[in-house]
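Hi W.,

Here's what went into the run:
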Amino acid sequence: MKRCVGVVDTTFARVDMGGIAVEVLQRGLPGYRIVRHTVPGIKDLPGAAKRLIDAHGCDAVITLGWVGGREADKYSYLASSIGLILVEVLTGRIIIDVTVHEDEAKDPKRLKEIAVDRARKHAENLVALVKEGPTALTSMAGKGLRQGYPDVGPL
Amino acid sequence: MKRCVGVVDTTFARVDMGGIAVEVLQRGLPGYRIVRHTVPGIKDLPGAAKRLIDAHGCDAVITLGWVGGREADKYSYLASSIGLILVEVLTGRIIIDVTVHEDEAKDPKRLKEIAVDRARKHAENLVALVKEGPTALTSMAGKGLRQGYPDVGPL
Amino acid sequence: MKRCVGVVDTTFARVDMGGIAVEVLQRGLPGYRIVRHTVPGIKDLPGAAKRLIDAHGCDAVITLGWVGGREADKYSYLASSIGLILVEVLTGRIIIDVTVHEDEAKDPKRLKEIAVDRARKHAENLVALVKEGPTALTSMAGKGLRQGYPDVGPL
Amino acid sequence: MKRCVGVVDTTFARVDMGGIAVEVLQRGLPGYRIVRHTVPGIKDLPGAAKRLIDAHGCDAVITLGWVGGREADKYSYLASSIGLILVEVLTGRIIIDVTVHEDEAKDPKRLKEIAVDRARKHAENLVALVKEGPTALTSMAGKGLRQGYPDVGPL
Amino acid sequence: MKRCVGVVDTTFARVDMGGIAVEVLQRGLPGYRIVRHTVPGIKDLPGAAKRLIDAHGCDAVITLGWVGGREADKYSYLASSIGLILVEVLTGRIIIDVTVHEDEAKDPKRLKEIAVDRARKHAENLVALVKEGPTALTSMAGKGLRQGYPDVGPL
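Here's what came out:
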């Protein structure tokens, strides 16, 4: 069976980051099936990632979450982050966890730019890790790369 | 045996969100048994969801929690959220975790509206995911859907 | 062997909540052995609950914790809460986690009243869940019940 | 083989709490081997406790951590606390987690007194639990015992 | 097969801490293979450490993370810390978790010094623990050692 990579996104998000990830993955990993699941919000991401891996045996998953500006949303972000790490540790698969925080920018246009850039760059990170293995990014280690913002460079 | 979906709610809540979820699930999933458990508060939800899945083999569970306004309640919310994600990851079943925070609105009538709307919409999300599978919500990915509030739409 | 219910309390607490729980459980569950363990503080509760379940096979456990007023105590509360949920999820047994926060009241007499009322009411919750099963509290779902304070009622 | 109790401490700490614990344990548990491991900081305690239990089969472990005053240190404390509870739950062994927070006192002499008293009293707690079992502390339940400070007594 | 030690670092970091760790490990552990993986950010460290251990059977891993100054970054730090402890507990291998917080210093030069010193000293800690075992650091227990800053000494 064709190898696969998963995409999990949410209906809470205000930018179609999942669609962007699918495009980058299809272009970068032509030999792979791309499987996409959608859930309501960030707290649903870890369970969905786990089910996607169990059902399709994907080598890697990219999750795309959107975090509101309230204190409760921040705790949801923390719970979701712990959950995604747990799935990654228990399954041994790569999970790239892309998150946009609604309070990163007041200007909706800027916020959208952040989301688009972050989803795209992290999907490219996943392509590199899946194609070239765990040393794919080593030449950029410590280089101050950013997703959603310009790279800040090494000190 | 008939397939089942679980509902777990609390006596701490000030709105009968569990009852609303049961109604939506019975209407939307006529072929399913709906099993309802009730616990004192949010920290009891993960254990109850796990026992309900173990005892009845439910495909999915919706939990309905109510969070007080004190700092300790927020930490209880965080612990509960982590626990529900843990159950979802360990069992592979869908858990939709619906939560109302007492400080979301000062007006009791408004707070009740939030709770009713959120319970209903998330129960509908669960119906869709159970009936149509994990791509049921993909056409709405990134659309800024909200539960308890009007949708905010995509950027 | 006689079925059993466990009680775990602490020497840090300033009210003998464990003793109150034992009384309520003995009266409400005459057919059960009541096993009581005591540990220094809240972070010791999850491990003790797990050992008590392993050693005695108890159906359910009530833990009674007392949280100091410092920031570090709040983090201890969070860690303890996550741990108790973990034990409940891993063992499938009911754990009712009763907690009093030292800063809930400035007046020592009031604080003691909160602790006594909360321990008693939650022990009664446990009696109901053990005797009547997971629908014992369903008639009170969404009714705004409180432990340590008067019920606030439904909205 | 002689039964054993473990001690895990850190090079980050500013008081030799591990040494104090070893002394109390040797005096109180003459029939036991006392095994001591040392790690850099608090986040290393859970892994070291687990390895010590795996390697030596110790019945119980006391860990002695020192937490800095920065926000990041508090999060490290939380992660460490969750980890130690996880080890206790997974192994079924007693772990007494002793922690001093650098901001508990401004005066270095007072801070040292807190650390010495807390390490000693908690090592004594461990001796009692190991020698007499899980009811060793029940006569002191709810008595407002403190470690590092004078007991505050029951309300 | 030659025994191995792992290094996991990030492209988010602004100093090549992974490179520093590799140098110290190669010099201090000449009989070991040093395997280096690189991931985008701190939340990717636990999964990468787990995969590195699974793939290469390394005895120990050093992870090198860089934490931004926003509140969300602090929660990412907490999730990552919990995840690394989880990997350490589940695998029984030593994981030394080195972290620099961007807000530790305003001066970039000072921040770089902190990162270099911390990576180097913690790599040396790992060399000692791997070569001499879990008592390697016991003579320094309670001595107030610091990484990234001068030692503060015992009280």
